[in-house]
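Page 42, continued from yesterday. The earlier attempt failed because a stray header line got pasted into the input along with the sequence. Redoing it now with the clean sequence only.
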Amino acid sequence: MRAVVVGGGIGGLASAVALTRNGWQVEVLERARAFGEVGAGLAVLPNALRALDALGLGEAIRERASSEMPAGIRAVSGRWLSRADHGELRRRYGQWAMVHRADLLEILRAAVPADALRPGVEVREVRRDGTVLHSGGTSTGDLVVGADGIRSVTRRSVWGEEPAPRYAGYSTWRAIAANVPVRESVETWGRGERFGYSPLPDGRTYFYAVVNAPEGDEGGADELRRRFAHWHDPIPALVNAVAGTALLRHDIYELPNLGSYVAGKVALVGDAAHAMTPNLGQGACQALEDAVVLAAADGLAEYDRLRRPRTQMVVRRSRRLGVIAHWTAPALVGARNTVMRMLPRSGFSRSMAPLLDWAP
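This time it went through. Structure tokens are written below.
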């Protein structure tokens, strides 16, 4: 059996690994000239670690990751709004891992046969019968995996009538700071603004900032510093440590629900199927789950039945959390913060069950 995978990111490479382990001959078409990713930190949550274990790659990730669990949420002043119970989280769900995104890509790529990887190939059209037209000619497969992201050519080709991605209303900066070590993973909520940071295993710190902004806003390092220089430590040091060239900024989009993730011989995975806001840290995690289920499913109809309800639930939960986190009205923000301080630590652990209880 032959599979053509469109896209060489996390979902595409994980799908290639899973299918190869199940005896498929795989061809991975990637538009970029080299397999890799410009990015920053990535939280691999327990459900995703179980998916990586199913691919035989869990230990390789653990060896290159810090096992940092979320410490909780703070206010701009530094006051804790919510604290996580690490013992309860680990007992119920298992290990967390924080890695550089490029390290995860490297581990996945190394697990795919070298002759299956075709960088520098731009896909132009995908057909339901398993035909893929691209800059290098034509490929055909018994299965085509559309893993080509939120602006998926695969989805536009086969699901042309489906709605386009929609802007979530906020934009994010991401960066890695070399000389500002932190000891725990924290997210801080303000009014229409958030800031998060986590330690990486090499001593550097990954951070992100999320702000309400018009679509297409291009504010850079100066705006980042203006917004966050007065927040609690170590946030001022983090924003001052990063040069503009090391700072990534992207608008956040999500994909409206698709009626199906499969059509003919084509299946969508990852952002091509269910792009979501990053508020739950589940985008890459769900792509890894997709890959494992796709390779193990008894046909594409079963893959759709197993994956679509779950991933669309995660999209909804992530959207709702983003709405609450980005409130701007003082009364709403004050009420939100008060309620968060009153909730028991066990509430956070229980709330994560629908996300983290998944197993292959």
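Notes: The chain has a mean pLDDT of 94.
Reminder to self: strip header lines before submitting.
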